[in-house]
Amino acid sequence: MQGSKQFKRAILKNLVLGLRKRGVASRDMSFHERKSAVRHAADAALAAARGTAPCWSRSLAAELSRGQDAQLRPATSASEEYTPRKMTMCKRISRRRRSIRARPKSKATAKAADVLARVMVRRRTRALRDIVPGGRGMDECTLLGETLDYAVSLKAQVDTMQLLLRALQAPKNPMLMQQ
Amino acid sequence: MSGRRGRISDDEINELISKLQALLPETSRRRNASRSSASKLLKETCSYIKSLHREVDDLSDRLSELMSTMDNDSPQAEIIRSLLR
Predict the structure, then answer these.
(1) Is residue B3 one of the residues assigned to a domain?
(2) A 10-69 → B contacts, CB under 8 A
(3) pTM for the complete prediction?
């Protein structure tokens, strides 16, 4: 199972645009700033390309924008003028979180639940919940499908980044080689 | 893929499991998925996802190193600059 060419193309396009937007080509960035900007761009590109259908994608996008907000809005002390803004922020975040939580599947058949109980060993499920974005809010049925989708999408992200890296590193045109 | 509503059937679960099996690199394809191999499958899936995370991290490293070498005037730097400005 593979991510489609269309999907990878979307990731690549988003990635290049994201890198441009974050100005990673500029000279005055520390190593960590640059690396974190590249990573951020890569994850944002993935989530945007995948869209809002899967829960992991929405969770990832929300995580990324939270991180960005934290950078742009330095922590302030609880002063009067910030309280109203803080309250609206909280409402926005909890509203967002509510829409991100996957709606639990309506009852599986007893037999299917049996199969699940056998399959989903608690330890394994917990591990999966930790690594799939938004995994903690999902029921087990959803988690399995989301894991599959997430793994396929991650692979597409890796392939795309490798492609970009190769493209930027290899001057194929012999005329471009100065020495 | 997601957005499936209503009951999830045995068949759907089995389908997801076999898709996971097909996805993982170098899985030993077993004909009859026994109970123990299902748990192993989930463990391998975890490892697989973690290794993909590491790859993304490594690639981010290398991409950002590439960006930072753009101070010079090599033709490569020119290509990168024109792509990313």
Answers:
(1) no
(2) 16, 19-20, 24-25, 27, 29, 31, 34-35, 37-39, 42-43, 53-55
(3) 0.71
